[in-house]
Amino acid sequence: RELGPGVSGASAELAAIVRPAEGPGATPTPAPSSATDTVDGSHLAAYALGAEQRFVLGVAAPRREPGDHTIASVAAVLLSLLTGEHQSGTGAARSSALVRLLLGAAPEDVAPLLGGKRWVVVHACPDGPAAPDAVAASALGTALGSALVDVDGGVVRVLVAADREPDPQPGWTCGVSSAVGPREWATADTQAARALARARATRTPLVRHSERPGLADLVPSAEAEAHARTLLAPIATNPALPETLRTWLSLHGSWDRTAVALSVHRNTVRQRVARCAALLGVDLDDPDVRMELWFALRQEPGARG
């Protein structure tokens, strides 16, 4: 049916929200990958299809049904493929970037082919029991504004240009890294994995890696790292122990939430934490001990912004 003037105008406004700014005087600001509104009884949605051609998919419906967002996201994926333009650049540019990486180029050398200088890594897992498939992963990538998607077991990893702020996605639990340059992509990947673990443990749709400055920033990094290596040496040979201890401390000593975050049984968490306490020779009920261990564990790669 024909849309009324109010609905048409609101749809145009939604399209302007998700469409990246352009022009020499445009200020680069994060643009959401989708936006919704309700006007005159019509439910409206807009989905960004790409940055270079600035295409937008607009949807108007008299009512909103379960599954509508997923269907529209899949349609956005297919339309993005048909238009041949993505936030991350053309398929030829991505192919060239992959070949250069395989032949030994550094990430910072190929990043310009992908269309961004600063990036965030998103780790996401579906809320249901089923593992994500290629279509669902592509739909998530489109919703986040990126075609750089990888399905790794039950987790989807997406590399997103930092000028797009990742939003919570229906049906997904997400962890988002801090914005980094290409040289720090591996660190951002670790940050996103830990943010996702915390999101799952706390049943939060999206958790971002924190970059808040703290007292630890007053200590020279070389001295802090040396102290951490010495303090954690007794448990460093078994990577599961420091990771379990770090997660347990970050979740305020909750056995159940730590078990969810690490996808292990709560008794396994208890055994690992008890083993850490024995090897380190400390009382983990002492808040001063917890604080010192947290300071040391924060020196691990990817733990700090």
UniProtKB/TrEMBL annotation:
Pfam families documented for this protein: HTH_30 (PF13556)
Ranges where the PucR C-terminal helix-turn-helix domain occurs: 243-298
Gene3D superfamilies: PucR C-terminal helix-turn-helix domain
InterPro entries membership: CdaR-like_regulators, PucR_C-HTH_dom, PucR_C-HTH_sf
Transmembrane segments: none
PANTHER family noted in UniProt: CARBOHYDRATE DIACID REGULATOR, DNA-BINDING TRANSCRIPTIONAL ACTIVATOR ADER
Protein name in UniProt: PucR family transcriptional regulator
Origin species: Streptomyces scabichelini
